[in-house]
Amino acid sequence: MTDNNINKLCSVLTDIRKKVPLVQCITNHVTINDCANILLAYGASPAMCEAYDEVFDFVKIAQALYINLGTLNKEQEASVILAAESAKIHNIPVILDPVACAAIPRKINVINRIFQVGKVDVIKGNIGEINFLAGKSSNVKGVDSLDNSEGALDSCKILAQKYNCIVAATGENDFITDGKSSAIINNNTPMLTKITGAGCMLGALCGAAAGCSEDKFIATTSAILSMNIAAEEAFKEAKAPGSFRIKLIDYIYDLTEDKLRKGGKIIWQ
């Protein structure tokens, strides 16, 4: 890592804890509690505001909007579109998690509508989802990706250039790009695949980081590295999914700049 990128990446964590960004989450109902708790542990303020009659005005006071399409019902669909429109009007960063877009065709219609009325700053998905959105073949099982890392960075770059945003593809390795500069994170643990909502929690963390930084590429990289380092630490202590899930939130809370600086395994391109 270059010294400049290290310093900027680490400072995102400090900024989150100083500024306590309000992150509005319209997320799936399976993991809503986990998203709220990990945001609190990270230093942010979660708001799980998704009611159609409230979202437009709530976006105005938030520092970031996290949209997760995992359990999309009709009211949520209307709410995410309205919230995305409000975020564009009020210049609030938006993180889009296109959960199951490769498995459920309806999700693509919603994603297209979000881009029609709003502006997305970060797309964060698993490798299968990102490959699919980039127009490549993808191998998925419901919400889970079965794709390996081959070609993942290229898919991210295609999407980043198409939508002029940051794109992150998560898997055994994580790939983040703005279409020009890229980062590959090699921190990870397979235990993240044994709990529900690891990707959803990560998307929420990306929202907190984006809400505190003008540099969304560095912010997204910082959030993903934070999740992975905390997961590695949690796995050292908890070898089974139930205890790992609890320890993951504990180690997010215990993160420091020094842990990010010493533990990060990042290739910058």
Automatic annotation (TrEMBL):
ATP binds at residues 124, 170. Keywords: ATP-binding, Kinase, Magnesium, Metal-binding, Nucleotide-binding, Thiamine biosynthesis, Transferase. It holds the Pfam family HK. It catalyses: 5-(2-hydroxyethyl)-4-methylthiazole + ATP = 4-methyl-5-(2-phosphooxyethyl)-thiazole + ADP + H(+). Its cofactor is Mg(2+). Pathway: Cofactor biosynthesis; thiamine diphosphate biosynthesis; 4-methyl-5-(2-phosphoethyl)-thiazole from 5-(2-hydroxyethyl)-4-methylthiazole: step 1/1. GO terms for molecular function: ATP binding; hydroxyethylthiazole kinase activity; magnesium ion binding. It comes from the Bacteria. The keyword 4Fe-4S does not apply. Catalyzes the phosphorylation of the hydroxyl group of 4-methyl-5-beta-hydroxyethylthiazole (THZ). Belongs to the Thz kinase family. This is Hydroxyethylthiazole kinase. It comes from Clostridium tyrobutyricum DIVETGP. The gene is thiM.
